Amino acid sequence: MDVFVEIIPGTYARQLRVVEGSRETRFHALWLRERAPDAETLDPRTGQRLIEAAALPLDLALVEAGCDGEKIELTFSDGHQARFALHDLDREWPADAVHERWDASLTRMPSADFTHALKSDDALAEMLESLERYGFVKVSSVPLTLDGMMPLVERLGPLRRTNWGGIADVKSIAEAFDLTMTQRGLEPHTDNPYRDPIPGYIWLHCLSNADSGGDSTLADGFMAAERLRRDDPDAFECLTRTSTRFRYVDDEAHLESEGPLIELDARGEVNRVRYNNRTERVPPLPPEQLDRYYAARRAFFALITAPELTLTPKLAPGEMLIMDNYRLLHGRTAFRLSQGIRHLRQGYVDRDTTASRRLTLRRQIGASPYSLQESA
What we know:
- The chain is α+β, with helices and mostly antiparallel strands and about 375 residues long.
- It is built from nine helices and 24 strands.
- InterPro entries: AlphaKG_dependent_hydroxylases (IPR050411), GBBH-like_N_sf (IPR038492), TauD-like_sf (IPR042098), TauD/TfdA-like (IPR003819).
């Protein structure tokens, strides 16, 4: 493919225009200079910058530009010369996240096999790409031991420890210190929004389940947020602009944090939802602002509890859900035990280690962000 480059006239020579076929990209001279891929600018081993970018002159300009089809050769007004590979410039653009929004019509759940993901990088990559794409994945064949999830956790990074320790029990007990330890149903929620940082991924491993009830409920918070944006844009804007607070207090912990129920990234896309009725503590905002907030929150709640947006899988012993706690709203139906005990084990793994493993595997084995291993 022919490539055309030119220094754009009328910009004080501070912009480079690159045309590849029908695609045109513009680059700022200072942006290019601070990324010059040479040993004077970037450390060859670490790729970290050696020069102080903030000290470069703001009027830095381009003097010469040329391209041989694979590399762009530039000369800057400070005398520095650099050669950029075209494919390296392409990689500087952040890849769009592959988030497939879903509702109750999702007929095939993203799934993985514990043993395969433990032994095979290809299987682990597929599991992590599924998790990124859908916000959850169901894992089968998990060992029926208290720490059965740990070998797979350790393939990603450390387990996140909290005031409850590492992996915690989720089962009905007398004098429960948390509503998860009762037999009542739990409304859709995200976990621990009172922490900073909020745990990134929930690992929920079933050792035994109730004979009646105890089904999991899953709702895609990104889908619900986009439905709200479409159907009630004023409510959507309110929930993105109003910061609420969350608090958890017991004899040994006092945890507080804040943030909006719907959080947007720099491009205006939904990148996090928070919802936890049990721990939300709305600040004493002006009454008029609270009128809007309560109405908007009610509209969002109607969506995340709507049957048409909710999946209700029931975990069997040896099955595990891994859930994106920045996206997925999970709960459960009420249950009754005629015998035995409903016993699940839950742990948290942070986002940075999970994302790092996924992206490293994608680079090493060429895993596609669209690859997915599904089963009914």
